[in-house]
Amino acid sequence: MSNPATPPAVGVLDERAPLTFPPGFLWGAATAAYQIEGAAAEGGRTPSIWDTFSHTEGRTVAGHTGDVACDHYHRVGDDVRLMAELGLKSYRFSVSWPRVQPGGSGPVNPEGLDFYKRLVDDLLANGIEPWLTLYHWDLPQELEDAGGWPARDTAARFAEYAQLMANALGDRVKYWTTLNEPWCSAFLGYGSGVHAPGRTDGAASVQAGHHLMLGHGLAVQALRATLPQAQLGVTVNLYPVTPASDAPGDVDAARRIDGLANRFFLDPMLRGQYPDDLVADLAKVTDFGHVRDGDLAVISTPMDLVGVNYYSRHVVAAPVPGEQPERYWRAPTNWPGSEDVRFVTRGVPVTDMDWEIDAPGLVETLRRVHEEYTDLPLYVTENGSAFVDAVIDGQVDDVDRLAYFDAHLRAAHEAISAGVPLQGYFAWSLLDNFEWAWGYTKRFGMIYVDYDSQTRIPKSSARWYAEVIRRNGLAAQ
Ligand code: FCB
């Protein structure tokens, strides 16, 4: 990856001409089970690590939990109708593991499975391609109690669960992704502790990252054997990492963060090896003794596609001797290997998450995956922004979110023009929802949710996106 000393321009790309996407481009929207379903104790579902975490004092803003969320479990028919009104070509959802396999082992729970069968059938009846993610962070609590992702056995349990799902839904779901953002599961869940299960153990987080990828590889093998026609992949969250200056210390900080955030996952899954510099950087944390012969071959089992979640860029700088860097959600001091790196803010426009808006970073990210790693089809499986919304006369005019989508779709188109085989784009998110540790205080939806009444209001961005889908592209401005 090139690390230009001067960060590239930020924000909306210049292009204002009409842009058409390739025929068959998969226009979608994404959600995740724990963030929308609610019905936490219904239909035989048992707790996941997110139930435990969100019910633990002080872990989420205002103690918010996913107990009710968007009540999607009870409103799935209405929500699919909203998707159909938007004209979505695809819907990316995740399956709650403890809903379909309570406790994370043993037989399938027919009642839990039935919910997903109805969802998938309803999507298909509306001409919407189901895109199923097996793991969007809701590990059954019993598996965490048995050691969680730092324990090798969790990978085997995950493959077993993948097999159950293939048997149950393989006849009607074509697109399967194993993990969503293993970086977050490993480093936020076990390293910095800001996500469930909230552990702060550097070595455990590196082990978790490895076993997540091992589970992914085993699951791909199981799915492939059962569903030879399916399209199989994984979703990773990637960031361009730019040094704050061309000073050697800053350039080295960028190398290190790029190793931890991006190459930790891309290299094993797409090249079958860990990067040497990453292993050296982490030597103080772990000797990688948890990696067994043959693991990397499993982890790099061939896939059919790669899903990329893109939100922002990291700009980083060398430590200042004697100064403790400010804690930052993306790099709390105990994120192993990055303890002393400074995350620099450039003063450019940010979203309500304080994430810098950087559409050219999407072009850079997609080109890098294609040019340095793989010829596989790529999909943007998440991209979007939180902004404060106001309901005025029953309408939500979310101009900032709309502009964010517009700029990033222009970037996606630029990547396609540069030769990237990008075949689809999923807006995050269909609905406002439970934004993990931020609870309901951050709104990412194209559809507004009033959590008291569970009323849905399509925002301006939703109406605009429907038009983008109808045209298969962007209008001139
Ligand atoms: C991603 C997650 C998704 C959502 C967005 C804002 O990291 O995959 O669930 O929280 O961020």
Automatic annotation (TrEMBL):
UniProt-listed Enzyme Commission number(s): 3.2.1.21
InterPro entries in UniProt: GH, GH_1_N_CS, Glyco_hydro_1, Glyco_hydro_1_beta-glucosidase
EC top class, as a word: hydrolase
UniProt keyword terms in alphabetical order: Carbohydrate metabolism, Cellulose degradation, Glycosidase, Hydrolase, Polysaccharide degradation
PROSITE patterns: GLYCOSYL_HYDROL_F1_2 (PS00653)
Gene3D superfamilies assigned to the protein according to its UniProt record, in alphabetical order: Glycosidases
Keyword Transcription tagged: no
Family (UniProt): Belongs to the glycosyl hydrolase 1 family.
Taxonomy of the source species: Bacteria, Bacillati, Actinomycetota, Actinomycetes, Micromonosporales
Pfam families xrefs: Glyco_hydro_1 (PF00232)
Protein name: Beta-glucosidase
SUPFAM superfamilies per UniProt: (Trans)glycosidases (SSF51445)
Reaction equation(s) it catalyzes: Hydrolysis of terminal, non-reducing beta-D-glucosyl residues with release of beta-D-glucose
